[in-house]
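Retro notes, item 3 of 5
We never archived the inputs for the zinc ion complex last cycle. Fixing that now. Sequence and ligand:
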Amino acid sequence: MLDTTYRVHILPGALDAVGGVVRVAVRAHRYAVVTDANVGPLYAERVREALAGQAVDVFTVPAGERHKTRETWAAVTDQMLDAGFGRDGAVIALGGGVVGDLAGFVAATFMRGVPLVQLPTSLLAMLDASIGGKTAVDTPAGKNLVGAFHHPSAVIADPAVLATLPVAQYRAGITEALKHGVIAEAAHFEAVAATASAIGRRRPDDRAISAIIARSVEIESAIVYGDYRESGRRKTLNFGHTIGHAIEHLSGYALLHGEAVAIGMCVEADIAERIGVAAAGTADRIRAA
Ligand SMILES: NC(=O)c1ccc[n+]([C@@H]2O[C@H](COP(=O)([O-])OP(=O)(O)OC[C@H]3O[C@@H](n4cnc5c(N)ncnc54)[C@H](O)[C@@H]3O)[C@@H](O)[C@H]2O)c1
Ligand SMILES: [Zn+2]
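Structure as it came back at the time:
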């Protein structure tokens, strides 16, 4: 049977301690750190240092959703082959959800599958995209159409790296945490809403955001893996996404995913109130957040 258990480490400063976790979670001869042109210059050297004593190659792809393609997948796998990577290698995804999905798909397919460690660096990747084992690239026909399930051996999130994340990206990530609150836990919603309203003025401190990420990861993984076997429960993760995806598409992807989902959550809550499946005031409460 396939082992799908893995630990999610959430700790400020974790980036400088990845060596210990990686050595325990993955026994590999070489590590391919896949990152993008924004995140690589900021953090790849620290990861290399944290893995001192191990053979590490860094592969940098252009940043952005439009590079989450089969062409980029081909470029990375070709570079790994040129560098002599084999079955005894492992992939470390260092970046946001784009790098996580792309590097995950590389790990799923290189030599029919090598181990993967996720080092998510965006808020969205920490509390959503790095959990659940879905990997994919986009095609001209649409998003995430070619991919595979490939569970990571470990996820290591260092909230301190969010200091360099652009504020719009930070907000987009908070939207998914709000969603976790709406679908699973009022207290989480209130905690995230309190943090979200302050983001324009100042970032939440590492402890506050770590707690939010941890609770969101628990909710996300409980729904994806946990006790909720019925597919109905997994569908709740799509809250805000049906309309959100339509808005995202109509905007020609000028809106960030999280921005479109925020609008989608308001509209879908409105509809839910009208057809009587949500309590009156639900949409207003979400809008206020
Ligand atoms: N696999 C899943 O289950 C799943 C779930 C949700 C979303 N996704 C995917 O995730 C992707 C979106 O992820 P995202 O929002 O992280 O986008 P992203 O990876 O494009 O990151 C957003 C931007 O922030 C930059 N960045 C990331 N971390 C940074 C940091 N610490 N400092 C400075 N800049 C940083 C990136 O270079 C990029 O420019 C989409 O492709 C989506 O399909 C996957
Ligand atoms: Zn989403």
